[in-house]
Design goal:
The complex is a heterodimer of chains A (375) and B (561). Chain A has twelve helices and ten strands. By secondary structure, chain A is of the alpha/beta class. In chain B, helix 9 (311-349) packs parallel to helix 15 (458-474) and helix 10 (352-387) runs antiparallel to helix 12. The longest helix of chain B is centred in the middle third of the chain and has 39 residues, at 311-349. Classes of the chains: A alpha/beta (375), B alpha/beta (561). The interface between A and B is medium-sized, with 12 and 13 residues. Chain B: It is found in: Endoplasmic reticulum membrane.
Chain lengths: 375, 561
Amino acid sequence: MWASFICWWTQDQAEQFFRSGHTNNWAVLVCTSRFWFNYRHVANTLSVYRSVKRLGIPDSHIVLMLADDMACNPRNPKPATVFSHKNMELNVYGDDVEVDYRSYEVTVENFLRVLTGRIPPSTPRSKRLLSDDRSNILIYMTGHGGNGFLKFQDSEEITNIELADAFEQMWQKRRYNELLFIIDTCQGASMYERFYSPNIMALASSQVGEDSLSHQPDPAIGVHLMDRYTFYVLEFLEEINPDSQTNMNDLFQVCPKSLCVSTPGHRTDLFQRDPKNVLITDFFGSVRKVEITTETISLQRDSGIMESSHEEGQRDEELMEPLKYAEQLPVAQIIHQKPKLKDWHPPGGFILGLWALIIMVFFKTYGIKHMKFIF
Amino acid sequence: MGLLSDPVRRRALARLVLRLNAPLWALPVAWLERTMQSVGLEVYTQSFSRQLPFPDETHERYMVSGTNVYGILRAPRAASTESLVLTVPCSSDSTNNQAVGLLLALAAHFRGQIYWAKDIIFLVTEHDLLGTEAWLEAYHDVNVTGIQSSPLQGRAGAIQAAVALELSSDVVTSLDVAVEGLNGQLPNLDLLNLFQTFCQKGGLLCTLQGKLQSQDWTSLDGPLQGLQTLLLMVLRQASGRPHGPHGLFLRYRVEALTLRGINSFRQYKYDLVAVGKTLEGMFRKLNHLLERLHQSFFLYLLPALSRFVSIGLYMPAAGFLLLVLGLKALELWMQLHEAGVGLEETGGGSGPSALHPPAQGVGLTSLVAPLLISQAMGVALYILPVLGQHVATQHFPVAEAEAVVLTLLAIYAAGLALPHSTHWVVSPQAPDRGWMALKLVALIYLALQLGCIALTNFSLGFLLAATMVPTAAVTKPHGPRPLYAALLVLTSPAATLLGSLFLWRELQEAPLSLAEGWQLFLTALAQGVLEHYTYGALLFPLLALGLYPCWLLFWNVLFWK
């Protein structure tokens, strides 16, 4: 009985191991509006970039498209910064932002070429989406939009039908395993209405007919810093670390109508897995799964049903505890920088000497006779 | 002449002569240069001079020359492709010293900020609007009005917007905004909305046409006050004068406003810090712009600071008035056509070919003479006053300015005597229906002129249409002649000008007596001519060369024998 239980547990672990089916993560983050008063769209995109990078996706797997340069705009009273919280609490620009498509290169044509892979051969590697059929891709778009379209740079638009067709091209060319599409614009839900390819999950900041509102203006900078939906998504993501088990259902609850004024929406009918089994880090992070095991696990095509072929080997080997994940860094503590309980160690020689000096001076001044009041 | 026998005018003239001998006030150029440089701006000066067509009554000299001083604050991190202008006009009679002080304080404050993306030009001009016109012409490298200005040595890119400031005291009770510009041009409504937003934010009291906004729009008071403000704006726009330096900026499609600080007897006063904050806010918002102001209306009428009437609502009114002229012309055309057909039918029995050519030939030639003579009178009205001022001063004891005005009035009145003296020019075989053809031509001429005027300066077009169209439509030689004559004289362009002056002062709650009104009328005539020559204002040529001949044609129709 014990043996079969152990077997089932191992198989369950293995099932968990291959739960999501992806092996690499990509992110395509797009900000489509220029001009100084659209500061908040650049801040939105940069805050998602920051979270995604923090959770492990490297720059080589992120395609960042920013339509305007806010950090070095002559109107920026704090040059080289892009703030997401007022009173300049959080600078999302940082030191190592790598923008792949900048300024006038952010066009509908370039965006669709990135998605579908129809890129001229001279394009550098950093501007390509080199995903395969085991990639989970996060696509985040923000800017000004309307019912069924998203405006690029005040001169052109991408419609929801074009986007849906681009995703279908990606599916047919097996360029993604699963896709998470997040959009923060006015009437954002209209953009995911037309999707028809499998394995796509979509989130939007507002329904058709609603406007997405901005969060708060900063009086020193003079513009609105973030949009509400992305602000609360950023707050939510700040709590995530690479080994979080938070799932998509929690992301759907972010920014209810009381905080966001608009009603965020989501679409999961094209997605094959249940959202409660989908981890946030499946899309936002690049979590490598490593498990050390000495047993042989035979995998069937259908991960639902697994034969137990262990029963034969079980009789031969001794009962061993299944090994868990290798000892990992205490990530939660590092990221949140909670005060660690360090081991006490005696103070260094310099500090001892300094204190001795102070005590000597004290007793010299006040005389040794006062010692009796201490002891 | 009787004018100099007036003791008031003699005293005024004596005072002027006295002032001529005293040293004239001049802009402290060196001090301004030093102060602006100490603040940290790039300082340049520009000298200009202008030969006036006749000496202005207040200045009494032909040649006006001066110096403009301006400092440029360069944007720290942007290429100097665009700029904003803060200008303070200075002249000898209206001291604008407080505004210069505020300008320098703002310059010092702006110099310490790093968020400017456009250059800011701080401009102090001499001789009020003459200096502004000289600077603008040199900046845009054109010569529109014949002013001689030295070329500018420092330039800052295309001007996106300008604000002109006039303050006479260091505390203000309210800020008045002027939007009407030269030839009735208006800035983009967004600039006015910007000003109004900052007034509300800063809790500053802001007025339009000197009137406060009425809070109560549900009862009759609000709309009535709005109507008064609207009429004031119509009158000011129709006059075509630049009511401040902003009016001259508008010619170059630079959106501009003039802000005037008013110090009345109200108890609550604002100091210059409040005014400065408003200006700083406006400039910071203008700094954020990436394109020229173009989203809002360029043609509008304002019943209140936060309400406007767009062109789509008010243009049909002018259209309907001009339709009256068109319909009347159509009626006359039909009547002429019937008369021609009637002649055909009667002449069909006895030698039709002999009657036709003479009838039509006489019709045309009988029209050419009145047209030419009326137009010649208009040209005389335009050219003779300024040309003949020296001759007039030799023969009559009047100053040049008065000579110009009196010549204007004389030629205008001489036109009234035309029909009696020009009948010998007209062919005696002119048929009785000739007046119909003349009236037809006059109606079409009037409709064309008023239509063109209404498109560019709606207020002027509407005002003239409202007065001239009814009388033009009913004028005919038959019927009560003295009544029609009186009506026609009362709606002539000069009478409209006189009437609108009285109406303007009435609306401003400072009504005029008849004598005062007449003096103001004479001054207005002189100013109109002067502004045409110095700034290119179009009211004088439009009235003299366009509407006066047209009106004379109707006068000829009325006195047709």
